[in-house]
Amino acid sequence: MNLANMTDYHHFPIYSVMVLFLGAFIIASTGSKPSKDPKNPAGFRAWIALCATALSLFFLGSLVKPVMLEGEIISYWMGSRAIAGGYAIGIAMEVDALSLFFALLIATAVFVSAIYSIRYMVHDECVPQYYVLYCMLAGGVLGLVLSGDIFNMFIMVEILTFAAVALTSFRTKVYGALEAAFKYLVVGCMGSTAILTGVIMLYAQYHTLNLAQLANLVPGTMNNATKLAFAFLYIGFSTKAFIVPFHPLAADAHGAAPASISVLISGVLTKSGIYGIIRLTYFLFQTMNLGSMQFMLVFIGSVSMFVCVTMALAQHDFKRLLAYHSISQIGYVLAAVGLSTSLGISAGLYHAMNHTLFKGLLFLAAGAVLHETGTTDLGKLGGLSKKMPHTTVLFLIGAFSISGVPPFNGFASKWMIYQATYQKAVESNNIGFLLVTIVALVTSTLTLASFVKVTQSVFFGQMPKEYENVKEVPFGMRLAMGILACLCIVTGLFPKTVTGVLTEPAAKAVANVGEYITAMGFKSNLPVPNVTFAQVGVWEPINWLLILCIALLALTIPAVAGKYDRVSEHGGPLGAAIEMVSGKNDQPTVDENGEVDTKYQLFYGGEKNVYSQVGGGDLFWGFKHNWRHYFDFMHNLHSGIVNDYALWAVVALALAIVYMMIVL
Amino acid sequence: MFKKLIAESTAKSPWLFHINSGSCNGCDIELVAVLTPRYDVERLGFKLAGSPRQADIVVVTGPVTRQSLDRVLSAISQVPEPRCIVTMGSCPQSGNVFKGSYSVCAPLSKYVHVDVDIAGCAPKPEAIMDGLVKATEILKQKRGQM
Amino acid sequence: MIQFNYVCAFFLIVLGFYTIVTKYNLVKTVIGMSIMDYGVNLLIISIGYTPGGTAPIFTKGELTQASYFVDPIPQALTLTSIVIGACVTAMSMSLVMRLHESYGTLDTREIRRLRG
Amino acid sequence: MTANIFLNGLQYLGYILIFPGFLFCFLCGMLLVGIDRKLVARMQKRVGPPILQPFYDFFKLCGKETIVPAAAERTTFLVAPIVGLAALVVIQLFIPIHGFTAFSGMADIVVILYLLLIPALAAILGAAASGSPYAGIGLSREMVTIIACELPLVLVLLAVAKTVGNALGTGLCFSMSEIAEYQLQNGSLITKFSMIPAAIAFAMVIPGETGSHPFDTAEAETEICEGMHAEYSGAPLAVFKLSHAVKVLTLTSLFVALFFGGIGTGIIAFDGVIVFALCVVATALFISFVHAVTARLKIEQVFKYYWTVVSGLALVSLVLAWYGM
Description:
Chain C is an all-alpha fold. Chain C has helices at 2-22, 26-47, 72-103. Chain C has a single domain (2-50, 65-103), classed as Helix Hairpins (Orthogonal Bundle), CATH 1.10.287.3510. Chain D is an all-alpha fold. Chain D contains 14 helices and no strands. In chain D, helix 3 (22-43) runs parallel beside helix 13 (268-293) and helix 4 (53-63) packs antiparallel against helix 12 (235-259). The model of chain D has no long low-confidence stretch (mean pLDDT 88). The interface between A and D is large, with 89 and 99 residues.
């Protein structure tokens, strides 16, 4: 194994996964005695975890050129036992543009969250174990995305479920953490059993576990057993992606988990579920050309889009609200991917990437608020922007991105999704897809509404007395948030280049199954489709931003000019405004017992300065009043009892089996 | 160039903020009557503003009872500069029939510099409009000195 | 004869689902999960069975083309599945213990702080 | 694209600063609001303020002292109105005036729909930053109004895109300049009968989107002391009043561009006047008349009105457009 052979990029997929598992092993073997340094209880173990995630991100990053740009598919046999007698014997790893896209996404989120958790896990005990589980979770998800063997995917699903359950209940004293972990474990285990049954049914029919060979054999010969396998596998992976019947799990799990883990659960685990579904429907069974299959995915996508955003509006806890939002964004991704048009898949993947970025940023901001104030209840917080200005700015970037405000990345991908659904509606002349466009547009506004609610009740408005001594979060946490914020802005401003380099090759890979099979050494007669990403609409964020800056300059120049002509200290039209920004104007004077003089107090209809924060539950009465029956019904439906969630899972499995039997 | 334009338009668009410090509502109805089609003070640019931050002229009615004294003063203090204080009716000027009562701290001028006093126990709309126009003149001078 | 195994396997899986869905005691839910796992293990084993096959163990000199082996791969998968079943039971029992300690009850209808 | 912006930069600067940009918006917006207040007064048999009253209000407010309350977040409080106004003027640049668009090929209808969100979001952030409870109630009502107006606006824009798309054969067409050209050739969209319900629906959305009388629950002076602008005084308030005026201009000119694109000569100067005249008529009909006739609605009535009556109208025209009428 000389050095030249070692650094050949064909080995990088296995390196990136093994680095993480090795990191977990090393940290585990160094015992669990916390280090003396109060600011970093895990000591050198945190740096090991950070290097492991950085290395795996480096390995995957260097794969972008060969796989994405040159379209090469790397197939890597463990133990070099290739195909014997026409059957794939060994376990294989196959990295095509789609898996690399998801792997890059996961590696970035894991790396940034590792930076964040160094300073975030200060108040907790047994932090070394946290890093062991963290690396296991990261390794499991990377393994799932890069593996080319379906049983290997099942093993990785198990690893990440165990790590996620343990990390959800890491802070046992948090209200409801144990309960969330137990529910996640029960329904997660049902999902894993469904995946295992599906895998075994496939093995019974085709005596192979290799994805490429299955993709070659399965599409032609669909008998009842394979349809049953498809139903089981589909339900298994949608449990992992927390789609509609399984979304309460996500809400509980995110609410209780530490923020750096919520980033992974919402940004990474849901994507692995989506990856599983894409592999299943487009590669293994190639059923996406059937209208009914597209209907199923798009229908479930839009239902989870709308249900979860309305549930989010009714939440009182910051992290539960973010959790419901991540499921509603996953609904967007699924609806877009379910269209099975190349533009739809590219838009869906682009939104999946954007979602990992801005959702990670929002969860980190929620973690920062929890780190400083100790609570994430929207009713008790308020006015934190004066004490935590950086976190507020970073949170606002994330909030604008998720609610689709133009220059940021959420808008670019949502805009592509609207076009994809509307184009699909026009091509297939089926008004159903038009409904999906409308639901998507309205859901985006409801997302904006719930983030206005969070902005007003957490960062602006009036600050309660007990948060007087809150100060800004340590630099490490702000650095992590800063990285994600810059990525949010960059991917928003350059949609053409980002889709060109990342999502279009992945969408081509999804359409081009034949090459995926031949890369593993099996002959396949599937044609290579020519894929076009023609877009009807036009949106140039850079030019728009240029004109906005010129307009902003045009506004401030007369204001500043006004300041110097000494007509009066309040100068031209905006003189006063700009002076105030520079803080030269009179400051609010505070008398001896801390009472602000009446001129600068808020106007309360004449009353003395009274603390009354408008936030949390009392916002959007108009909307909630009109939908009160819907909100009451949904509140009772999510009863929080394990049995109900398990019942939903079983009913979903039954429905899937019946649907697949009829449709396929 | 701006100074003249701003001073000119300060007189042309004065916004009223009405504070009722315990009045019998006689003056309040009269103030609103001034805005009705018959007298229509809006043709001179007047408009009722919702909050003191957006007011130029503060119209105080009622004999400034003890309960409302500090509330009236804090509301007046929140009005941004070039402002005018107008007392409407004789109650805020002298306490009218309620003078000498334990709960009336009648002349508002004891606490705040009052610019225009509109006399009458429920002054007629013409008197109110005349008073308000005088207030806009004062506003214009104040704007000039600022 | 082999069809009987498949029927039993799927019966066990459905029994596991039934226990998880209807029983309101945490420990019974954990039992339901493990029954579901045993059902799947039985399914995996019975898939690999070829009538008249012997255990897939090579012994010196006895290796002939004609000798029948039971398919070894499902047996390997069953090993992993059993291990996973054990881990699931271990983790869920530890969670049940901590839940009992902090909630004071094992009844799932009381353990619903996170809802809505 | 970016290259040739620098090349003929002066011409584009002219667009931004003078014609469809600041000067045009400032003058026409204020005139529209002046005409609106005068018409409402005349409908109540009052003499009403002079047409130039909004200019007087603007310059008076510029001269006033700017008070930043102690509970407010200073920078957001002061920067929000400026960003709102700049974004609004940029939207005006994308709206075609009878075939002439200052910056075509940069944003299509769906993007304009979302660009309209930025000024409203700026006002909301300004209100949140002021920390006043009145502003909190005001921004909550403003957000509900935005949600209410979003659905009909979406349906109308999809219907227009589908109608023009059918005619152009591509099935759907989002870009504003193509819609303008389509109307140049075969007459304004209002002439097609499937577009009439959409035009009425859009007309009903205008007062809601600009927050004028029956739907101004967000800035209700009587109930919540000027709602979102409760703590604003002096120059920032002047900028907010100006952006309200420019929003009236933007929405009416969008309405004219979408449904009355065909009317007008070739010369740009005359078109500007004609389009402005149409905007005045649109403001008179949809804002002043409705203001004089109705009383302020409760916020949940506003929401119910928009999601049932107006969306139903827009849906009718969408379905008609879908089946190629």
